[in-house]
Write a structure and sequence with these properties.
Length: 77
C-alpha cells in the first residue's frame, strides 16, 4: 500500500512496522503501558457491562508481566 498523497502518514506506518518488528528495549512489560489502575477501570466495566467477572487472575498471572510486543502483540494464540 502506498500513501503518496500523505507522506507523513506513510512514514508513521513505516515507523510503526519497524517498531513492531524490532522493539528492542521498548519491548516493556504490558503493565508499564497499561497500568494496574487502567486495568481496574476496565475490570469494573467488564463485570458491570459484559458480565465477565473473575478476570483479575488472568491479568495478575498472565498478561501484566508479558513483554508488550514479543509476548503480547505477537502472541500466536
Amino acid at each position: 500500500i502506498t500513501y503518496k498523497e500523505n507522506p507523513a502518514y506513510e512514514k508513521l506506518m513505516i515507523d510503526v512496522e519497524n517498531f513492531l518488528e524490532s522493539p528492542g528495549d521498548n519491548d516493556v512489560p504490558v503493565s508499564k503501558v497499561f497500568t494496574d489502575d487502567m486495568f481496574a477501570k476496565l475490570e469494573k466495566r467488564m463485570d458491570k457491562d459484559a458480565g465477565w467477572d473473575n478476570v483479575r487472575s488472568y491479568w495478575e498471572k498472565d498478561f501484566k508481566d508479558r513483554k508488550i510486543i514479543s509476548q503480547f502483540m505477537k502472541d500466536p494464540l
